[in-house]
Each structure stands twice: as C-alpha cells, then as structure tokens.
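Reviewers of the previous submission asked for a worked example of the structure-prediction workflow described in the proposal, so we include one complete record here. The input consisted solely of the amino acid sequence. No template or homolog information was supplied to the procedure at any stage.
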Amino acid sequence: MALTRVGHLSSATLLQLYQLTGSATAIFEHRNHIEDVIPDISPRLKENLCHLDEALRRAEEELNYDQYYGIQVLTMADSDYPQRLLNCDDAPLVLYYKGSANLNAQRIINIVGTRKCTAYGQDLIRSFVQELSMACPNVLIVSGLAYGVDIHAHRHALQCGLDTVGVLAHGLDDLYPPRHRDTAAKMLSQGGLLTEHMTCTNADKVNFVRRNRIVAGMSDACVLVESAAHGGGLITARLSREYNRDVYAFPGRIGDMYSEGCNNLIRDNGAQLITSADDMVRAMGWQNDQQLYQAQQSGIEQQLFPDITPDEQIIMDALQKQNDQQINMLSVATNMSVQQLTALLFEMEMKGIVRTLAGGSYHLIMNG
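From that input alone, the workflow returned the following structure tokens.
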C-alpha cells in the first residue's frame, strides 16, 4: 500500500519492480540500495524509495479505515485478487474491494459506452442483459458506475439477478456521481465496488481513464453498446484488445452520433458485430452454460458427460484449480506428456468440456 504512494512511479514500473524483487517487502528492505536489484533505476525513483515514512504512515491509516468499514485490501498474492489482471503489464499492485461477488467468476464481461445513452442504447442493454441472464446465469457484469451505459448495465444486471461490480475512479469513502448511491448500495450485496485508490482520493479525470484498464483486464470480453467517435468506451475496447480480450459492439444507424464509435470499430475490425446476447454467447463458446447451471442446481452435472475418462478427469481437476492454462502448464500439473495431453484435449474439446482460447490456453467449460 505504501509503495503505491511513491511519487513518479507508474503502475507498469511498480509492477516491474515488484516482479523483479519478488515482493513489496523485498522492495522495502532493499530501498536504500535498490540499484543492486535494478542497476538502471532513475535517481528520482531511488530517492523516493528511500523516503517511505510518510507513505507507510498513510498506508497504516488506510488499513485501519478499511478494517473498520469492512473493505478488503487485495494484493497480487491474494487468491481473491482478480486473477485475469495478473497477465496485464500495468495491473494495480493493490485493490480495495467491498462487496459479495467473486472477482474470479468463471464468466466476466464488461459493458461500456457513452455517458449520454440514448433510448436505443437503453433498449439494447435491457434486452442484452436479460438474454444473457438466461444463457449464462453465473456471469458477472463489470462497468464503471458512470452516467449512461454504465449505470443502465448495473441496474439491469441487478434486476435480472446477476452480480455486478463497479470499478471506481476514487476511494471507497465517497461515491461519484452521488446520484448513483442507491444503486451502489444494492450492488454491495449483489456484486460490489472496486478501486485501486485509497480513501480521500478525488475523482479526477485521469483516474477515470486509468480505471478503464481494470475494467478491461478483469474481464473475458468487452461489450460496447453506444459510443461517439471518441470516448471512454473506446479506450476500454482498445485496452481489451491489447490484453487479448474479445471485443463486441452493437451497430447503429449511420449518422447517429452515439453509434459512430461502434460502427467505426466494427468497420476497422476492432470489434465483432453483435445484435443480441446470443451472438456473443456463441462467439465465446458459452452455449452450454444454462444447461450446466441447471444441472449443477439439480446435482446431476456429471451425468451430462458420462463418458469422461480418468485421464480427462485429471485434466478437469487441474483446470478447476486454475483455469485457462497453456499445455506446458497442464503437463506439469497433470504429470502427463504434451503429446498425451494434445490428444486428450482434442477429445475433450469435441465433447464440449474445454475450449481453446487465443494464445493457446485451455478453458474448462464444465465442472467435473
């Protein structure tokens, strides 16, 4: 927490420093001779690291506040930290979270767009979230709790019984905009509020831009509903692509201001065109979610796939512990050869048990 208060230290630099030393404690312990760890460290950063007393005092103050008000302080070493963020090179070292949702849910999407959502956009969100709640009953919806698309996404998620998390551009001691306070209160028991900022942090413009990387990085896919030619939703879509996430956009009428960004993105192959939740569900390979959810509720899940072999079960167990693994990681986890795994994973994909993600990772669709 104290390290995040060090001046002139970007998230990417801080993460690199953390990874090179192995822990925040190690950085602190080496602060007076940090050049032994990072020879090319800048003099300004070295100087700042040598004077952490005020940052530590502020961190202790924050920790006391968080413990009193039931706010979770999540570091990268915590299992509750959004694991999807770990492969983002500018992920926050610390997150502050209050809520009930699992930030590592099996399915997570973000819904973003303009703050001046039209009636067309509102109808799209309403039908999309309603359809999605039927097709993927356990999906987590993430957005930024801002005006327009964000707040409509949160509210319709609540109405449809889906967990929804708002990523904030300030600390958890306040809420911006204040008009959304009632919705935020409901989200605490059906979702949550997440931020990288300590209390007493203002909702400055730069913070809204920075929080988009969290929205993008913690999700499997980005859904852009409406956007002008420029806007925060397009930033989230760009970040999602950079993080190798899937990006989808609803088209709009040519000439409509708040469809221009979506139409341009689709035209330039920056997003896949969708007209319904079903389009996205099929593109993501999530078609079996509703059937599996109902089976889980009935306790007959395994009966859906009675022909799972013992070796396939070993692979499923490994993916249940840590989903989205590449084959070399699975080889270590299962003690199987890559050649053996290749054949088994092909059969499992044909059975609809796993699917291949961009980058060669394997994603477990069903739980065994």
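The mean pLDDT is 89. We consider this example representative of the routine output the project will generate in years two and three.
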